[in-house]
Write a structure and sequence with these properties.
The chain has about 120 residues and is mainly α. It has one domain. It is about 85% helix and about 0% strand. Helix 2 packs antiparallel against helix 3. The protein is globular. Keywords: Cell membrane, Ion channel, Ion transport, Membrane, Metal-binding, Sodium, Transmembrane, Transmembrane helix, Transport. InterPro entries: FluC. It catalyses: fluoride(in) = fluoride(out). This is Fluoride-specific ion channel FluC. Its main location: membrane.
C-alpha cells in the first residue's frame, strides 16, 4: 500500500514542480534559479509540517516521500549553482547555495515547530 501512495504522491509532486517552476521563471526571469529555490523551500516546509504534526506512515508515504520527494530537487539545485559559477556569477552561486540550504532548513524548522505545538 505504501508503494502505491509514494507513486501517487510522486506523480502529483512532479507535476506541481513543473508548473510552479515554470510559473516562477516566467514571473521572475531566468537570471537566478528562483523556481528551484521555491520548490525546495516549499517542500522542506511541507515536510517539516508533516513531521511536526506527527502524521502516520501512510500520510508520510503519500505526502512526505511521494509529494515532497518529487516536488523538491537537490540535483537541479546543484546544477543551477554550477551553471551560475560557469557563467561567472559567483556571488549569485553563493547566494543560491547558502540561501537554499538556510531557507529550506528555516522553513522545515519553523513549520515543524509550529505544527508540533498546535497538535
Amino acid at each position: 500500500m505504501a508503494i502505491v501512495l509514494v507513486l501517487a504522491g510522486g506523480a502529483v509532486g512532479a507535476v506541481c514542480r513543473y508548473i510552479l517552476d515554470g510559473y516562477v521563471k516566467a514571473a521572475l526571469g531566468k537570471a537566478f534559479p528562483w523556481g528551484t529555490l521555491c520548490v525546495n523551500v516549499l517542500g522542506a516546509g511541507l515536510l517539516g509540517a508533516l513531521h511536526g504534526a506527527g502524521t502516520g506512515t501512510y500520510v508520510e508515504a503519500l505526502l512526505g516521500t511521494g509529494l515532497c520527494g518529487a516536488l523538491t530537487t537537490f540535483s537541479t539545485f546543484e546544477l543551477d549553482t554550477v551553471h551560475l559559477m560557469q557563467d561567472g556569477a559567483y556571488g549569485r552561486a553563493a547566494v543560491n547555495a547558502i540561501g537554499s540550504l538556510l531557507l529550506g532548513f528555516a522553513a522545515y524548522l519553523a513549520l515543524h515547530t509550529l505544527l508540533g505545538h498546535l497538535v
